[in-house]
Automatic annotation (TrEMBL):
Annotated keywords: DNA-binding, DNA-directed RNA polymerase, Nucleotidyltransferase, Sigma factor, Transcription, Transcription regulation, Transferase
Keyword RNA-binding in record: no
Protein name: RNA polymerase sigma-54 factor
UniProt source species: Succinivibrio dextrinosolvens DSM 3072
Residues covered by the RNA polymerase sigma factor 54 core-binding domain: 168-358
GO molecular function list: DNA binding; DNA-binding transcription activator activity; nucleotidyltransferase activity; sigma factor activity
GO cellular component terms listed in the entry, alphabetical order: DNA-directed RNA polymerase complex
Family listed: Belongs to the sigma-54 factor family.
NCBIfam families named among the record's database cross-references: PRK05932.1-2, PRK12469.1, rpoN_sigma
Matching Pfam families: Sigma54_AID, Sigma54_CBD, Sigma54_DBD
Domain RNA polymerase sigma factor 54 DNA-binding: 372-530
Biased amino acid composition, Polar residues: 87-102, 124-135
Its job: Sigma factors are initiation factors that promote the attachment of RNA polymerase to specific initiation sites and are then released.
GO biological process, one term: DNA-templated transcription initiation
Length: 532
């Protein structure tokens, strides 16, 4: 048997493979960047490539009036959004998924930091917040939408359909530490208070046990005791806002109730409800609660009125972190013929161009190294500008396609949204679906009904009686409106909502209604039921 022999051989073969050029990789990267990320990318390229320079801001500013004039060059006058689309209507038409109805709260859930919703009078909190803001020389300059429509766009940020030129940065932690510094506490007592404040979460509740806080304190003062921690905790809980650093909603509300004047009507009964029967109130078992308390329903109503004036979420005193701002990449403009179109917000990003001085200097290169340097950097500069222009062209083309399909939304809001998927736009403008996905991610459009991410306009469809289709977004809007108008003592069940939607021609199963309701952050009918 012949032995196995190892040998080295050299062979050549032709194969075909797909690979992306650096230019293509750069173009794809720019497509998916948000306006903020794109700005950072542009600044980095400007620092690295001397052949690029920033276009003067004066030549970059373009007001809405200029956009309107460009779109309506044959018209003497123009209103970007007609009289039916006032700033108030714009604001009122926004869908707020996080704050449905200020009465649907459960102040007695043990996981108060997560599930409690505001349902209390906040005038005192607002006034104290304003006082602190003034003492700290913080200023928040808010410009309403109607001002935005009629002034030059300077790349201002939009948040909750308002435009902010500044932001409030004082947090709850800052507010508590300021009060601590103004207090006479020192030594171990101050150290304990600092550890307690550090343990307060965004909702205003402490997230660590008193034992863990004690262990942290004992690293610096081994003689500290749990009684010391409890005593300082009571002191911090009486800082502004009252009830902060509580361990749950019941403790927070009891602190506030005990601070009320003893002559306050129904105060003592409210304390008893929270102390002994918070579980019944949390579950809205009003009949059992009345029986246990030996009171009538009208008395319970008065007790609940007292509780509704409390603040179960002291963390809402101030923003827990810096507000995220949105700068619209695209602006919807209404033309003189009543139709809508989209225009880029050029002031959202820095405009760049080839530096003419360096371009001329490249012609004087003599050595090979100089020529190679100038050639490579000039080529990269041209590639970047080309990729940037391609991104903007794609963004504008996709935005105009969306606006054309969603014209009724611009007039009527979410209830008029038409079903549309990525493939619909990709087919119409002859681009790949992945390109549409990239260019609509984290890109925002300013419309008569508010500022939205472009992907907001893509939604699945629901069948209708006439064989057509309705947008899932429109169905959610109808569900929200129906629940908003329900009798709180007899809230609409998911089955009833399904029947009411069918009357409007939308065939939506009960399970689908439940899914959409949960997506809107709305509780079930049993949880929404109110005594008053």
């Amino acid at each position: 048997m012949a032995g196995i022999r190892n040998a080295l051989q050299l062979r050549t073969a032709q194969t075909q493979t797909l690979s992306m050029t650096p230019q293509l990789q750069q173009a794809i990267k720019l497509l998916q960047l948000s306006s903020i990320e794109l700005e950072q990318e542009i600044q980095q390229v400007l620092e690295e490539n001397p052949f690029l320079e920033k276009v003067s801001q004066d030549s970059n500013d373009e007001s809405l009036e200029a956009i309107e004039e460009r779109e309506n060059s044959d018209s003497d006058s123009f209103d970007p959004f007609d009289n039916d689309s006032s700033a108030k209507n714009i604001s009122d038409s926004m869908i707020d998924n996080d704050n449905y109805g200020n009465e649907n709260y459960d102040p007695f859930n043990e996981s108060a930091g997560t599930h409690l919703e505001e349902n209390h009078t906040t005038s005192d909190l607002d006034s104290s917040s304003n006082d602190v803001s003034e003492s700290q020389n913080k200023e928040e300059d808010i410009i309403r939408n109607d001002d935005y429509i009629n002034k030059s766009i300077k790349g201002l940020a939009i948040e909750n359909n308002d435009i902010y030129e500044g932001e409030t940065t004082e947090t709850l932690h800052d507010h508590l530490m300021f009060q601590l510094e103004m207090s006479p506490l020192d030594g171990t007592d101050k150290l304990i208070a600092m550890n307690i404040i550090d343990a307060v979460n965004d909702s205003g509740y402490i997230t660590e046990s008193l034992e863990d806080i004690l262990l942290s304190v004992q690293k610096d003062d081994p003689e500290a005791t749990i009684e010391d921690v409890k005593a300082i905790l009571k002191l911090v809980q009486h800082y502004d806002p009252l009830g902060v650093a509580s361990r749950d909603a019941a403790e927070c509300m009891l602190i506030q109730l005990n601070e009320l004047d003893s002559s306050t009507p129904y105060r003592d009964l409210a304390i008893k409800v929270i102390s002994e029967y918070s579980d019944l109130l949390s579950n809205r078992d009003f009949r059992s609660l009345c029986q246990k308390m030996s009171i009538k329903e009208n008395v319970l109503k008065e007790i609940i009125e007292v509780l509704k004036k409390l603040n179960p979420r002291p963390g809402n005193f101030a923003p827990s972190k810096k507000t995220d701002f949105v700068i619209p990449d695209v602006i919807v403009v209404k033309k003189s013929d009543g139709s809508y179109t989209a225009e880029l917000n050029n002031s959202a990003n820095t405009l760049i161009r080839i530096n003419e001085a360096y371009s001329q200097l490249s012609k004087q290169a003599r050595t090979v190294q100089e020529k190679e340097f100038f050639k490579s950097h000039l080529q990269e500069a041209n590639w970047f500008i080309s990729s940037l222009e391609k991104r903007n062209e794609t963004l504008l083309k996709v935005s105009r396609c969306i606006v054309e399909h969603q014209t009724e939304f611009m007039d009527k809001g979410p209830s008029a949204m038409k079903p549309m998927v990525l493939n619909d736009v990709a087919t119409e403008i002859e681009m790949h679906e992945s390109t549409i996905s990239r260019i609509t991610t984290e890109k925002y459009i300013y419309t008569p009904k508010g500022t939205f991410e472009l992907k907001y306009f893509f939604s699945s469809s629901v069948g209708t009686d006439d064989g057509g289709a309705a947008s899932a977004t429109a169905v959610k809007s109808f569900i929200k409106d129906l629940i908003a108008g329900e009798n709180p003592r007899k809230p609409l069940s998911d089955s009833k909502l399904s029947e009411m939607l069918l009357e409007k021609g939308m065939n939506v199963a009960r399970r689908t209604v439940a899914k959409y309701r949960e997506a809107l952050g709305i509780e079930s009918s049993s949880q929404r039921k109110k005594l008053i």
